[in-house]
């Protein structure tokens, strides 16, 4: 039974439960809702919740666990073949799943009957041809053990699906019956329902924890896998990045240092652009600007923050890059021949700086506004000019907060992807020249993982090691920055 | 005190305070400079904004017009249906290659009387490769028209289009084997003749992506649908979960370790780089759960996790803005805590929540990096999904991923499409933000 129909059945039972529960409560109160402990609808909700929630929970659990069990028992069938051919178990398993899917489709479209599937023989029938006929292209011919595994995969799935439907519906019915029996006029239905709602709220709030857990676990497991194939010391201290694309493993140099250097260099240029502009803009807006100017200029600057990064990426690749080449390139305006291609550290850094301006300016604006007015008044009263007040009183007082804002901007710059993918180039280099193409951690995560669904080679798995490095760096920066900002805020509250 | 009475004769006369001394002048100049730095910073920021918008508009607007050629094509019976029985299977057997001679004849007719040195067989280079397919589709749909002469409006090739838009010049074509300057002379004459014209390009907004060789027929419509389904997933999941989580944290959560843990997690997730969410989506939804790659549902799930912190933060702010007196009044007349929240606080906070959700959605709509990892690029989104289920589950692209894909193809005609795609994307973002602003203006209450 398809899951959608199963879900619909459970929901329908829930609706029936609502009606029945409400009826039973009203009947037990003699038709007068004043005799009830709770409002009548709460009795209905109680039965409906007891019907649907455990059943849905069971369904989700089943959907998670069943593939795991079936996978492990089927991979037992093909593990001999895997060790014989030296192919990875993952690859064979994905073949098995594909063949099984193909057989399913063949049965659905009526090309084969169930009996014919049972009678299929890899030695005699051309299964690859057969499945290609129903739209499933296979990479290689089907071996007998794969076919056997696919057949038992299908059989187990079928058994599992049947039991799933039975159990889920049984759970729903049991819930309905039990809660319906419990319903009478003294039953504290509202309290029970509210407990249930609270449980749902808590679950929703824990999704944040689950997400973090998911990120950390998926990064750690794949990174450990990577370090089994590639030495960790060479990854962290290797000076060259040179993945081989031809064969599996071997010959790849996967040192993170050139990537980290590119990331930090580009972020540095971005901050050199964004911090002075953002900071001066914030000072002017909060200290000098009249109300109308502020109400126009501030939102306009913040538009820059709302533009998607892909737009900045394209801007870097097609507008800023060629422009910089015209100025610094061989036949350029300055005639200096520093730059040979449009994609360079300078291009990406400059555009990323533009993106960060509103980020720095609105954070600093908040922080400068949080400096108490009495400090300004004191300084102005002593005869300081406005700018002296800003430089010698307000900025020192706001400094920790501004440092925090800059750190947040830095973490944003380090994690930025699209601008560097399009604007910074693809070559990993350890160089000081800002007009050369370099690449970053994020850009390499993208290039190592796109278009490749096989995660067994170190060239693909390295992306997870890069990801965890990126995650740790940005997380550290963020926590440090938030700590500074918070500490500073407390000072004046 | 005595100093003032006994003024030494040698001392200079006291200066008037109205007269500005050198130091004050210096200080005032510093003041002016400082202020000027501030104004300059804002001007630079606004200049960047204008430059960005200018680049988008200037490069993107040509994508909204396209060059079409009007041709009278004689659908010769001996080429398309040799038996003359109008058997639809036999007609389908004629591939697009079989239609090439018809197009060539039509072009020869259309250019009759014009001065050109192009050989007849090279005339077809003026047209897009899709022209033959278009005529073939028409013939299969209307087999009774075989033998007649029918007027078709077909796409010109991307270079002809580029020439009329000023993107391709005669110098560029010197090294180009696809088109020669002679073709351009012919095009000039055809434009005068009226058979070649640039019209508004609906196909760009509604159409599907095309293969690398046919930029003239690529459109953003299918990936727009992909984005739409993704946003639907985000809305269905992120809004209820985000609101439920914020209600718990704002109204019910006790002060304990668990609550602290959740709060720290949410504020950290808000700052995690988006590409890390892509890695999460890849590892959990594709590697572990075996959901289909490139499917909008996977993109939607990934973006949901990314958008949740934004929605939670804005929802909490709007829940906090509802004054405690409302809660006290509801509790005072006997409502339970849960009833207070759901019947009174939540409705009052709704405008703020919706505003925050729309802004979160807008953010998710423009996000690209996670989509690259779950396989929404490198894929030609050539067909509309057939139904709602396949809309969620079949491979598709999304607008920003499509733009990235076009930006990677080396043909300048695709760069123009990418800029055009950005205009479409920004129009959506602008609309969403305007709706959010209107919502806030109309419904937000000040207490």
What does this structure look like?
The complex is a heterodimer of chains A (493) and B (447). In chain A, strands 1-2 form a two-stranded antiparallel ribbon. Helices cover 76% and strands 1% of the residues of chain A. Chain A is mainly alpha-helical and 493 residues long. Chain A folds into two domains: 185 residues, no CATH class; 240 residues, MetI-like (MetI-like fold), CATH 1.10.3720.10. In chain A, helix 10 packs across helix 12. With 447 residues, chain B is mainly alpha-helical. Chain B has a three-stranded antiparallel beta sheet with strand order 2-1-3. Classes of the chains: A mainly alpha (493), B mainly alpha (447). At the A-B interface, helix 7, helix 9, helix 10, helix 11 and helix 12 of A face helix 2, helix 11, helix 12, helix 13 and helix 14 of B.
In summary, what is this structure?
The complex is a heterodimer of chains A (about 500) and B (about 450). With about 500 residues, chain A is mainly α.
Topology, please?
The complex is a heterodimer of chains A (493) and B (447).
Chain A: H1 3-28, H2 40-85, H3 89-109, H4 114-119, H5 127-133, H6 144-182, H7 189-229, H8 232-237, E1 241-242, E2 253-254, H9 257-288, H10 291-306, H11 309-328, H12 345-370, H13 373-381, H14 386-415, H15 418-423, H16 441-449, H17 458-492
Antiparallel strand pairs in A: 1-2
Helix pairs in contact in A: 1-2, 1-6, 2-6, 2-7, 3-6, 7-17, 9-12, 9-14, 10-12, 11-12, 12-14, 13-14, 14-17, 16-17
Chain B: H1 2-5, H2 22-60, E1 65-74, H3 77-80, H4 88-93, H5 100-110, H6 130-141, E2 149-155, H7 158-164, H8 170-173, H9 181-193, E3 196-200, H10 202-206, H11 221-252, H12 257-269, H13 274-288, H14 296-321, H15 324-332, H16 337-366, H17 369-373, H18 388-393, H19 399-408, H20 412-443
Antiparallel strand pairs in B: 1-2, 1-3
Helix pairs in contact in B: 2-20, 11-14, 11-16, 13-14, 14-16, 15-16, 16-20, 19-20
